[in-house]
Amino acid sequence: MGTPSIILTLDGLSGTGKTTVSEILGSAIGAEVIQVPPLELRTVSPWFAREAENYPQVSAAFFVAGLGMALVQADRIRASGQSCVLDRYQSSTLSHLIALGVDMTHVQEWLPRVAVDVRVLLTCSERIREERLATRQRPNILAERLSDPAFRNLVLAKQNTFNFDLVLNTNDLTLFEVANEIIKRIHASTSV
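RESULT FIELD:
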């Protein structure tokens, strides 16, 4: 059975497996993978992440623009008959900004209206997340900020206010098993 054209989003804290699962899913279902913020913005992304506390509204504008760019790109991909996986989406992006105290009242109004077909949240224990992050080549500024338990708990609380179609804990599953669970969900939601 083929997979219809969909937009699937993966959210979760840094180190939960989003990028690896996105790549596995992209190969398995023939979907294009888009990282948020998109590659076009990656060179300036560290500055905005680093300055988020000093200039939260400027950082918010950057991250919302990146999310908007990814949504437009995903919508075009789906319209062309292909599927798309967004590696990091609203909860991953916006929860950090909310935790920093950015007034996000109007953010949803700024984003393009693009229907997402399947929303997935990946979670894991803090120990496993830290082990995964330790293997990365360069530290991620947001990941460093998440090492502060108070900030991490605030982000998790905000993240839990978003609606997900599927929540998977990657502690006891390989990332291939996680991808297979997501593929089952895709087929279940598109066969209706």
